[in-house]
Amino acid sequence: MEPVKVGILGLGTVGGGTVNVLIRNAEEIARRAGRGILITHAAAREYDPRAIRGLDNMLVTEDAFEVVDDPAVAIVIELIGGYSPAKELVLRAIANGKHVVTANKALIALHGNEIFSAAQRKGVTVAFEAAVAGGIPIIKAMREGLAANRIEWVAGIINGTGNFILSEMRDKGRAFTEVLAEAQSLGYAEADPTFDVEGIDAAHKLTILGSIAFGIPLQFDRTYIEGITQVEPQDVVHAEVLGYRIKHLGIARKTAQGVELRVHPTLIPERRLIANVDGVMNAVLVKGDAVGPTLYYGAGAGSEPTASAVVADLVDVVRALTTDPENRVPHLAFQPGELSNVPVLPIDEVRTAFYLRLRVVDEPGVMAEIAGILGQARISIEAIQQKEPTREGGEIALILLTRQVREGDMKEAIAKIEQLDSVKGQVVRIRVEHLSG
Question: I need a surface site. Which of 5, 289, 293, 375 has the fewest CB within 10 A?
């Protein structure tokens, strides 16, 4: 059988890794796919020819549209990233009847509904395993391996840069800005780290995971996003003393009221396996009603880890080339006509526990005032820590852990607490998740 001809858009870190993995493991991949897979066309403006194998056997151009319009190309791998021209290229490839493999989480999170609809009409596949958690096959696990389950919730460390920063802050007591600078020097963070540290990158990925978990359309605009720039070393220390660790989590949960989609710093018990995922590694914890909690761990970025997922998608597409389009695995796990209109809850309607840090005047009755406000809002306190003042009559740090409460009620209570004369500055609050199975 003739090899399948593939065109690749982008020969950067992931693109180069994809070419190298495909060539290095060509024989093994062909045995698994049932036929050979050859990258015959490539589009790139900048690349390192010394780092990529097999370029002499490819038609390399700077115009990506030449690749998607070439009739010899059966599958297009999109590794340019971003929203445009990636969207236009993918839609053109689909219109030309070509299957698509992409690692572009932003593209899928924002435009996936349109792209999958176009692919369904043309009878082609859009595969996107590499868009979430790099080399971890989390999409395949949720879409196929857990198909018997009603998924209850998903919680993931899905941005390695943020996890590296929080790990360094905990292990070495370093400040956020100092660790961020190191992450940039090591290549973990971009010169503009906004997408990583403000949670946008994680929110793209969580949008995809939530859609697959619960069978809802992709809704990035309804995902709550909060970054880690305000986390201080003292919060990391206080959390540790209380038996928790702070992680930047993406959380998707199905409730009777609707679906929660939220990315934010989170205290989780240190005994949880996911709490011990450090450095740039990723991990996703999925709770199904039949299987219970399952954890998926591995490299969330990098040349060959991401290439591993890209090539795995490529093999899946090649296997399905002769399959009836109606009998392929659905893009979002559920059949296109079976997606649900369950609402995504606004953050004020979410129920979670909280860590609160207050700076208060060291005098009698302060705790009673604060407890009174919390009591009026029906917020129960689970634990209290009071740090000794540095001088007599000075200010002290007061640490509270609450039980679960509606977010909107907590916001109102914090606003009232901050109006007290005995409370100085803003109340720091971080959500708490126990992730119990």
Answer: 289
